[in-house]
Amino acid sequence: MSNQFQQRYQRCFISAPFGVELGSLPELLEERGISWEWAKDEAGETQNAETGLANADFIIVVLNGTRADYRGIFDAGIAIGLRKPILLIQTKSRVLPIDFRWFSTVKTSLSNHDALPFLPNHLFIECKNWQAPVNAATLTVFTGKLHKFRVDFGILVAANGITGDANERTAAHAHLQSVFGRDGLKVIVVTRQEIEALRNTDDLEEVMRNKYGDCIMGAHRF
User: Which residue from 25, 79, 95, 190 has the fewest beta carbons nearer than 10 Å?
Assistant: First the structure.
């Protein structure tokens, strides 16, 4: 794992029903060098959760289809207020008063070690060796292809990046934010400058991990 990725996501707080078996989740986090914690005991759950949420770099909320899910949604609300990246894991579906499109969501059993792979098995990559940044209209065509083939992840190699401002979410950046929020579509952009800076495959892995991590954690840049 890259040093930059570790520095960005070192600490995770898991909001899960008291006593639930976390399955492969701790192992997956430890494999990535990420420390984690959750409420230590039922009596101190509220205090522990508030402290853990504040200290964490990102939050994982486990929803198991019971009334305890409302506590998970409460913790997610606190995390949103703290501007923390959030990943929801649904082991069993339940109707809840939230819009899941605003979260990165995975539906799986916690015992499924292969349920949270770093990258999907199939990748769509498109290259634009243009002097100008790639605009929103061109990105719309690319994301349309992803929709057509029912793929939720793609890589755009754009020599001079894409139009707009990542922080202000304008132009092409606005489109990527839109498809991510609405459909969970993840597109990362790699520039010529980033490619030319690569010295080996480890550097390439570092760039991919950083960008993919930002994307699935709901960061404002792609």
Answer: 95
Alpha-carbon distance 199 to 54, whole Å? 37
Contacts of 166 (CB under 8 A, 6+ apart): 173, 220, 221, 222
200 — phi, psi (to 5°)? -160, 180
Are 14 and 60 a contacting pair, CB within 8 Å?
Answer: yes
The pLDDT tens digits of the residues spanning 123-150 come to: 788 999 999 999 999 999 999 988 877 7
Cβ–Cβ contacts within 10 Å for residue 153, how many? 18
Q: What pLDDT does residue 183 have?
A: 84
- The sign of the CA dihedral 214, 38, 32, 94 is negative
**Does the predicted model carry a pTM greater than 0.90?**
no
Burial class (CB in 10 A: 0-12, 13-18, 19+), 9: buried
Backbone CA torsion sign across 42, 74, 90, 221: negative
- CB < 8 Å & 24+ apart, contacts of 38-46: 38/13, 38/14, 42/18, 45/18
Rounded-to-10 torsion of CA 99, 65, 12, 6 = -70
pLDDT 10s digits, 11-62: 999 999 888 899 888 888 887 788 999 865 454 455 567 888 999 988 999 9
DSSP 109: -
Whether residue 77 is predicted with pLDDT greater than 50 in this model: the reply is yes
- The residue assigned the tokens 């498809």 is 179
